Amino acid sequence: MTIFNKPTTMLALACAVILSTTVASAEENETPKPDAAAIKSLKAASFVVPDSGRMRMMLIKPGKFTMGSPGGEVGRGDDETQHEVTISKPFYMAETEATHAQYMPIMWPDYRPILEKRGRYGRSAPEIHQGGSFLTVDRERRDLSRRAMDGMTWADAVEFGKRVTARERAAGRLPKGYVYRLPTEAEWEYACRAGTAGPFNVDAGEDELDTFAVCGGYPGCNTSRFFLPPVGEKNLPQNVIEARKPNAWGLYDMHGNLYEWCHDWYAPYATGPATDPTGPKEPNKEKRRVARGGCFISGQASQYLPDVPGVKVRYLRSAARNAFIHDYQMRINGVRLVLAPEIE
Fold first, then answer.
1. CATH of 17-341 among 3.90.1580.10, 3.30.750.24, 3.40.30.10, 3.40.50.300
2. Which of 6, 34, 162, 223 is spaced 20 to 30 A from 309 at the CA atom?
């Protein structure tokens, strides 16, 4: 079935959302219920959260790693001081960033694509995107079910985890002391690296970004500026869809696609070794929270600053840090939940 490629009526827009929901529901019906005992004992290698739009969680085993980057890494920021970090307990991380099919039924169960008011950029937009998402009307004409959910604030991402936690606690599938939440910055980098020590989490170089990252804005990447491909997939010529490379834990799109909110307030790293760090207790002056992984327009600056070493991969690398005002809604931000020990 062809999803709309011309201006459409409100009825047609609603049909696009209904189709998206139907596809997700059919997939849900094909997914068996997970083994609750295996989840609670942290022995399941992976599982799909029931009634979640096929949110698959991957087991991340505990261990030590060097957080940050060495001085000679291309594109390195001066806030990436290397230090040893211990992740003392196993946790689960979502295989991909949260998709529309995973996020919308939980956060906006009664949502309808009714265009109202004017968005930040002067376009009429659905209520959920009033804060500033780009090209929303155009995107509503596609099946969005497997595309990453963008445009959420830090609080939105936190609330999403709380709602999944409440559902899974009621179903008796939570390990003792564990909740669905945002990863800490240390958990994120540990899961991203998956045992690697270089700029990226797969055995590939800067000229192979399109095999594992969504990072448009310059030749060689696999998406246009405003169009995110389905999570974990890349668009090739003749509309062929092929999987992007996951890391060793089985996680997709840790580089590019959308920035992923983390738990931590942004600040310089504490000095010395750390175990299960959770970041500063108090907010910084600008009230910025950490976001990791870069996004679909990371690297765009290379068009204008071609002579600056590393500008193309500056925010795409495993060690790269960024931070955004916590209550500001932007098109480039999304979430990847973890099932991990609750943070006091």
1. 3.90.1580.10
2. 223
